Amino acid sequence: MDLWKTTVLTLAGAGLGIGMMLAGPAGAADKELKIGAIYMDAQGFYAGVRKGIQTGAADAGYKLDVIETNAQGDVSKESSFIDSLISSGAKAIIVSPVSADGSYRAIRRAHDAGIPVICYNTCLNESDMKDYVSAYAVGDPYEFGHKLGDAAAAYFTAEGKTDPKIAVINCEFVEVCVTRRKGFEDALKAKVPGAKIVANQEGAILDKAVSVASTVLGSTPDLDAFFGEAGGATLGAARAVKSQGRTGKTVVFGGDMTTEIAQELADFTVVKAVVDISGQGLGKLALAEAIKSVDGQAPKDIKVPYDIDLYASAEDGKNWLKAHADGLP
């Protein structure tokens, strides 16, 4: 018996959103709740978050009307959609803000309208977060980078490489990625003090990451490794290494697991370790915190931690693929 009901709606005037009526299992409380969900872009991680929000509704005890959009990394689109959610009577907003500084005005408007805002993955700067955000579901970005830095250090130590040259493909338009890099560098240099970051360029989206990484390889022919701070950067660096004939010479350590990245890890010729925060798990946590906030039970400590996983072998990649047959992280 199908326990789900899904109805596609259009958010009047928004031009961006779709709404889903998600009913919990038979016997769940017949309370209705309208929630807005905003995904920063269309990369695999956010598809996982979307599924987590959807499936989390089954256990929520509410009939959830989830109105959602993809901000496409655009602060103005994010702001416009938040205004539409305010007008439509949303009771909570789940969002991964595009910019720690640029997103705060729209989030402040939602807060001032009495709507709890729940961040996930990214958020505002500390002072604005304390003023305008009810909860922040997040895997610690420093730990994220630190785990990957430890893995890189173990690899270089095993290879007998004491002075590796590393290039960073970054997503540092959001603060969490800056913190990821700090964690990575601290862990790596604690164990391989001769390691050197020789380049740090933005390439969060796959096509740009391939281009940037290819250029770096051309200018630094003795590069030992890339650190991809997010999924697009990780996969883009791996593809650049292969297309430039650098397999066996330059390796990749990266963040955010997807089917393509898991396949690269399973191959294990270029990608050597991946750190990941489950998109589905984080989506479920963000939804749970949204419901608690609507019920007046926002956490005392705004940050609500979520686990960070390290995958550092071909077998890890194969196991991830088996566990995620639908391709969603």
UniProtKB/TrEMBL annotation:
Gene3D superfamilies (UniProt xref): 3.40.50.2300
Highest taxon listed in the record's lineage: Bacteria
GO annotations of cellular component type: outer membrane-bounded periplasmic space
InterPro entries referenced in this protein's UniProt entry, alphabetically: Bact_Solute-Bind_Prot2, Peripla_BP_I, SBP_2_dom
GO molecular function, one term: carbohydrate binding
PANTHER family: ABC TRANSPORTER PERIPLASMIC-BINDING PROTEIN YPHF (PTHR30036:SF7), D-XYLOSE-BINDING PERIPLASMIC PROTEIN (PTHR30036)
Pfam families (alphabetical): Peripla_BP_4
Protein name, per record: Monosaccharide ABC transporter substrate-binding protein, CUT2 family
Predominant location category: periplasm
Entry similarity comment: Belongs to the bacterial solute-binding protein 2 family.
Ranges where the Periplasmic binding protein domain occurs: 43-297
Cellular localisation: Periplasm
